[in-house]
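U., I forgot to send this yesterday:
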Amino acid sequence: MVAVLPPAIPPAIVQALPEAAPSSNILSTDLTQNRIEVSSSFQGAKVVVYGAVVESRDQPSDVVVVVSGPKASMRLIRKVQVAGLWLNSRPVVFEGAPGFYMAASSQPLDRITGFSNRRRLGLGVDYIAMDTPRDTKVVTRYGVRDVVVNSLEDDYLEWRQAVTRLKQKSSLYSDNPFGVRFVDRNLFRAEIDLPSDAPIGTYKAEVWLFRDGEPVSYSAKLLRVEKVGFERFIYDTAHRRPWMYGIVSALICIGLGLGASRIFQRR
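Result:
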């Protein structure tokens, strides 16, 4: 006699409930301009994020403003010494890193909220959300086989710090611990300096209101940085019709070469 056993019950899937999103009812924000035009004479721009805490309470509040975007991949190469020769290492590509990032706050971030909130919300250059390289490998760790780890392993922090260091050197990443200034009891403002080489695209200006170390309200606005004039035509043509851009560029180079050849032949 063959006993028929009931099908095994699959283990319950425990899914963490999303944390409650902060309310946006008590925070009102806006930008002095939502569009920045970039021409050949562009030397950078200043944008002011301003707002008000609608709910009037005597409870002390802190405000954090983060402006970031657009995301792009970044390729890094490190010099390594092999047999007495300095060679380029295998390139590492970080994907999804913002081209621009600035965090301004009413006081240093570590005084406003704890590590978990800073990491979860991406507050500060050290906590920017940045995708790791896709390259992984399978190893055995602590007696457990087939453990998938990132190929960077212990060097991950060093590579990530190299990304932020290069961006900070170009004034594209920054933290301003006193960049948010209360001009009245409930009114605040923060100035954002966009450098001349700020990337083209859509930016996001996020504002958090903190009380007792926890985010209680949130607001977000979009900012567009785009080329105008002849630069816009060249940019659009290169991205939308790359074959035409390549052909025209080649014809211009050939024409300039023939013209220079004629001039030197006459001399």
